[in-house]
## 1
Amino acid sequence: MDLKQLYQDIILEHGKSPRNFGKCEKYTHEAKGHNPLCGDKVQIFLNLNKEKKVENLTFEGSGCAISMASTSIMTELVKGKSLEAAKKIVLDFLDMIKNTQEIKSEELDEDQKTKIMSLSGVKQYPMRVKCATLGWHTLSSAMLEKKEEVNTEAFD
């Protein structure tokens, strides 16, 4: 199997069966996001413990396969990480999807990097970048405890 096929398989699998879907109990942070261009909507539920570690991270929402797959992958990669590591992963992903060829995060192992890199082809389709980044921007908003809804039209 070539790399492109592997990436497509990862996205399809996460799009059909999103991980960590639903509202977790005892969340400490939440945020909502909307992509008006595509109609994607996501709500993030984040549970940070006293040591600022992501104990749980789930989401609810609806949207295209890219949006749902990207958010699903994000929850898997960030759960269990420290808040600082989670913030770095989000920034590294956003940099990769918009600028660089590779994910540079030192917070992820090779399998995790493969999962996140499955979304790298989205940058060839500028209209789909907002779909892929919606969940990530919404998680960032939750971590920063912002109250206003994330709107992808605010991002270039």
## 2
Amino acid sequence: MRFAGNVIWFVVGGWYIALLWLIGGGIFALSIIGLPLTRATLEMAKMSAFPFGKDVVHVRELDAKSLDSKTATTGTIGFITNVIWMLTFGWVLFVLYLFAGVLCCLTLIGIPFGLQSFKLSGISFWPVGRRVVPLELAQAARELNAQEKLAALRSE
């Protein structure tokens, strides 16, 4: 299903959306201020081209780094960048992906594509600090983090 869904998605318009994200990433890369968004646009392009079989996770779920001065600084910069993104482009993209998802879900055959649009709406609203990874990796990272939190709660 993943392969067929990705092929249909790519042919129907995923290539175009991914290309637009790549062009946007190139424009953001030209300015120093836009560099945090460049990585986010590359993640969006990856997800927009082939969304089936992928999930979006926060970078801290993957690297399991604790809070220190470096992660606090990058987290603060990412938060400020996400707020600026959300107030300018993010809310528009969020609404458009949400609308496309609702339209796709009106038909039985379009439901899987609608679900992918909903996934894209979430990352387009708050993209900095998110990574697109295979579903299995996202599930493994979440399970490992849950086990670590459970062990910490039990030791208290």
## 3
Amino acid sequence: MIISFFGHKNTLLSQLQYEYLCVYLENLIKENQKCVFYLGGYGSFDNTCLKILKKLKCSYPNIELVFITPYLRENYTKLKIAKETFDDVIYPPIENVPLRFAISKRNEWIVSVSDFIFVFISHNFGGAYSAYSHALKKKVPTINLFDIK
């Protein structure tokens, strides 16, 4: 099962949202033989999700944390950090996409291969919102943590 995350850059989860995400992720891990988590590495929402997943990995070492990079450039700082932080790094088939569209095309690819998506969407613009809209169109099961109150 591939589980992905999209959220606005400056997202802060409430304690209730944080606990909900922790419990839901652990239940998904328990219910599925193999869970692979795709993260893009941008903003506080991705950082929060990564921290939760790293804690869960201590109890469930079979889960896999994967950074999906929009760029292959050697000087891309996030790529260097990702190689040390994640179990794997994947570059989706977007090599012919102009650089200014790389992140949005990467996000569309993530949606297309995901079995489940967690989002934190509080407004209807931006890259996270576009990915969320794409997930809804593709009928990928999605939970918006913003709605957990």
